[in-house]
């Protein structure tokens, strides 16, 4: 038995036996293993009973084999344990040595963690002659530490991967824990964060803003708030900060700080705010519908277009707008788009709440999430009723533009912009030849500057003009047309364009001329008839009143005309009448009139002779004599025989002429004609081929 060498103490008397008993009781009752070995580890001087409890092996086995205990050390730890032993043996280090913690495997296969220390023992002369050691079973502590480390690692792993940034600080506001992202946010390592004060980390200004919330948490009051947090890279984050007190037995031991980056949420909220404002501002109706049949939301424009209130719209479907004239095929296309999750785009006639119809330019688009699953439909409604009416009007206008009537469109400076096919057919010009030109290209020369000035004055004053005008075709032909010009004005009244509608009235004019000719001209001689003569006589009387000039009326009857008709037929008679008419026209001025009253009777009216009656009588007599001589010349009449030889005959015919002067309205038209007729009969009674004047004094 080893007994310790205990120094003497005053008043204390230890015998060797008492000390041995005390040492034995001490070593046997402690849980640890106490041993004493030789300096070379080859002899076990003493091993306490704790060895058997911890190693599960007998003390005698160790006395017999001093290094037997090493066999229990697990392979992974044995090398470092032996290295520690050899270090003491080779270096003779006499200081206390702590072995590295190591594991042993007991005979039952269980493992235990061991913590051992050694220290030198000296003899009475102070020489080193033993090594003492204590080995402790620390398995439970190691397991607890391992569990703690595992828990810490678990918490750290969670903290490093949760969206929020997590930190913990003491009541003195010093950090003892921070998640990886928390440290990165402030530009520090985990080691640098340990023990740092929060005010040193965030700065005085930010700490001053946060301090009321931190102090509240230290009082045991959890709280949260939104704020801004500047980053080292100058970016500013929107964050949600939460301060949670850590209590143990009701006492605050520290504060957890959770910081959640809500920058993306704030941006999304701002985008939603802008989007919502935009939806309210747009003129199109916007509807959001779920994949079922319910409208989830609609903007103000949709309510304005349809007349339904938001409460009436939410929860309803697009069939709300279907009416009696809605195209069923379009309605089916919409239903199929909703059913198949596809797009729809088209125009459809829908109905407002008040029953009025409107044209809806409808677009429906499916909305899918990141996984491609259908989540919503977005519908865009645009009221295009006015556009539809405009399109219909334009269609009608286009059809009218390509009608039989020639159409021309110019700008405000009368530069031609467009003509239709009918215009090119009327004018003979191609579209390319007239576009860029002005209507002056078609001027006929029949109208003077005053005519066009009056036309444009009318357009400026009334916005349009219409009337008959003569133009020239490309081939040079002058033709009449009916022209309607309309000025097109902008909202402020400025003229922007002119539209001209051109109708070729050549055929109509020709027909009018034929009708006019039949009404006012003798069809055989083309001389004015009785109606036209009466009209011109009326004009001559009015002119005489204005000017004070005399005019004369001659009544002529061909002598010996009837025998020609009776002997040679009407063809010969007609030829003579035509020739007589031609001779009469050659005897008078252009301002005078030669008319045929029928049969062999002609009337000649001489206008504006003179203001003196005698001079006027003399002038009338000269013309009458000229006529008498011309009509008395022989007539060579060529009669054409169908299928035979033409025959030419010579015939003599004279004329009896009665003349009556008239001035102002001293006599009526009937009286003037009657006087001339009476004078003509006097010439016949006097022997024919004579001239007689009516004597107004007789």
From TrEMBL:
CDD domains, A to Z: GGDEF, PAS
Domain PAC: 98-150, 223-274, 344-396, 465-517
Every PAS domain range: 278-345, 390-438
Domain GGDEF positions: 549-696
NCBIfam families in the cross-refs: GGDEF, sensory_box
Transmembrane segments annotated in the record for this chain: none
Record's protein name: PAS/PAC sensor-containing diguanylate cyclase
MF (Gene Ontology): catalytic activity
């Amino acid at each position: 038995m080893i007994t310790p060498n205990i120094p003497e103490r005053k008043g204390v008397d230890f015998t060797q036996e008492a000390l041995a008993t005390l040492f034995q009781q001490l070593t046997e009752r402690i849980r640890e293993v106490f041993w004493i070995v030789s300096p070379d580890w080859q002899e076990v001087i003493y091993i306490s009973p704790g060895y058997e409890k911890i190693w599960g092996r007998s003390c005698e086995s160790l006395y017999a084999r001093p290094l037997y205990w090493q066999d229990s050390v697990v392979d992974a730890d044995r090398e470092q344990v032996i290295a520690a032993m050899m270090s003491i043996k080779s270096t003779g280090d006499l200081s206390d040595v702590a072995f590295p913690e190591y594991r042993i495997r007991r005979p039952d296969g269980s493992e235990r963690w061991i913590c051992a220390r050694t220290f030198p023992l000296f003899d009475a002369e102070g020489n080193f002659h033993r090594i003492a050691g204590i080995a402790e079973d620390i398995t439970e502590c190691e397991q607890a530490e391992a569990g703690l480390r595992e828990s810490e690692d678990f918490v750290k792993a969670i903290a490093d991967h949760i969206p929020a940034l997590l930190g913990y600080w003491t009541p003195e506001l010093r950090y003892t824990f921070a998640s990886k992202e928390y440290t990165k946010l402030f530009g520090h390592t985990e080691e640098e964060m340990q023990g740092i004060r929060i005010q040193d980390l965030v700065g005085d200004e930010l700490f001053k803003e946060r301090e009321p919330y931190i102090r509240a948490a230290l009082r045991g009051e959890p709280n949260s708030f939104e704020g801004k947090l500047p980053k080292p890279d100058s970016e500013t984050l929107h964050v949600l900060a939460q301060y949670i007190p850590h209590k143990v037995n009701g006492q605050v031991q520290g504060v957890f700080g959770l910081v959640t980056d809500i920058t993306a949420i704030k941006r999304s909220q701002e985008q939603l705010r802008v989007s919502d404002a935009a939806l309210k501002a747009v003129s199109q109706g916007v509807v959001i519908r779920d994949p079922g049949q319910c409208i989830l939301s609609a903007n103000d424009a949709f309510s304005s277009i349809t007349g339904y209130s938001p409460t009436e719209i939410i929860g309803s479907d697009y069939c709300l707008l279907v009416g009696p004239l809605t195209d069923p095929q379009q309605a089916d296309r919409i239903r199929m788009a909703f059913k198949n999750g596809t797009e729809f785009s088209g125009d459809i006639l829908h109905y407002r709440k008040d029953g009025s119809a409107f044209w809806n330019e409808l677009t429906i688009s499916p909305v899918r999430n990141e996984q491609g699953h259908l989540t919503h439909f977005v519908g865009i409604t645009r009221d295009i009723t006015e556009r539809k009416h405009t399109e219909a009007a334009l269609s009608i206008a286009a059809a009218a533009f390509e009608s039989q009537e020639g159409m021309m469109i110019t700008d405000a400076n009368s530069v031609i912009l467009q003509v239709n096919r009918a215009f090119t057919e009327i004018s003979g010009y191609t579209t390319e030849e007239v576009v860029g030109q002005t209507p002056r290209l078609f001027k006929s020369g029949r109208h003077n500057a005053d005519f066009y000035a009056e036309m444009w004055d009318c357009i400026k004053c009334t916005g349009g003009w219409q009337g008959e005008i003569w133009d020239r075709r490309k081939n040079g032909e002058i033709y009449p047309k009916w022209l309607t010009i309309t000025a097109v004005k902008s909202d402020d009244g400025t003229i922007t364009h002119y539209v001209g509608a051109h109708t070729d009235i050549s055929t109509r004019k020709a027909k009018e001329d034929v009708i006019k000719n039949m009404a006012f001209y003798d069809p055989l001689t083309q001389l004015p008839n009785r109606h036209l003569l009466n009209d011109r006589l009326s004009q001559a009387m009015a002119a005489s009143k204005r000017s004070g000039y005399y005019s004369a009326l001659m009544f002529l009857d061909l002598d010996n005309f009837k025998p020609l008709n009776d002997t040679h037929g009407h063809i010969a008679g007609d030829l003579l009448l035509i020739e007589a008419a031609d001779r009469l026209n050659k005897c008078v001025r252009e301002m005078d009139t030669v008319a045929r009253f029928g049969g062999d009777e002609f009337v000649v009216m001489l206008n504006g002779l003179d203001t003196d009656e005698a001079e006027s009588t003399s002038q009338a007599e000269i013309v009458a004599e000229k006529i008498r001589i011309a009509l008395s010349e022989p007539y060579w009449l060529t009669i054409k025989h169908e299928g035979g030889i033409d025959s030419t005959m010579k015939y003599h015919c004279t004329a009896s002429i009665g003349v009556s002067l008239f001035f102002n309205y001293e006599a009526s038209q009937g009286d003037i004609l009657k006087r001339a007729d009476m004078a003509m009969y006097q010439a016949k009674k006097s022997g024919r081929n004579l001239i007689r004047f009516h004597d107004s004094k007789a």
